[in-house]
What does this fold into?
Amino acid sequence: MTTAAQPTAAQTTAPPTISAPQLVAQLAGPTPPVVLDASYLLEHPEFDGDYRSTDAREGFERAHVPGALYVDVARQFSDPRGSTHYTHPSPQAVVDELARLGIGEGAPVVVYDTTQTIFAARLWYLLRWVGVDARVLDGGLAAWTTAGQDVETGPTAPPAAVAPWSARETRAAWVTRTELVARATADERPLVCGLPAGSFAGTAVSRYSRRGRIPGSVNVSARALFAPDGTMLPAAEIAEAYHAAGVDGAEEVLLYCGGGISASANALTLAAIGIDSVRIYDGSLEEWSTDESLPLETDAETPGTAHAER
It folds into this structure.
């Protein structure tokens, strides 16, 4: 087996993140990126099936990177006809929303959030899927202010829309429930759950209708791959976490979580160590748990007290 940091033919070359000082320099350069704040709030569930969420626009208006635009991932970059909260839209719908935000074809984009990077990672994954030059601000707004940079307050004036362009799907990004149901037990591709250990074990309260994990999956908590200050852990530590779960980049990596959000942070951290051959199960446990015919494994039946994650 190769080590987690070794490249494969399907791996990325450009870093998926950008530091605050690098963003400052780019904003002062000849082709400044469009900055998007993708913060979104999920309440801690108090009982199984307790799903409460809201946008973070109020927090954005209290403080944001100067010139940034706020985007509601659940409303603007999810399919309202989908069966789950964050069903990905079509490539053209992604591009059309970008055009409404004044973002033209070929424009670079930097995404951040104030909610531990996972929603920024989700938007990054969608933009990357349709070929947008997108990166995530490592550490989010906290890293920006720690670097001594000023913030803006209040709402941002709506930008002028630009002409839409034809979308192109640049990579296979999604794995379906049907494909996972039919997945052979001998399939060597790792199936990684990005939820915390308690959710993976089924001992934590869940936002979804049933607790547990998809059989055959391994656990690499996306949240555990970020330091307390919100920045991504060093590449060697990320690689070791995946390698310990049997993920070395030799095979395509299949990712899931509760609703496709934490899994996007797994995709981001995998890209940071050079592993780009990944697909996300968009419906994740939100979809899987509603079908009583589909199995879920747990480590214990005793209700836990830890909160669930996206």
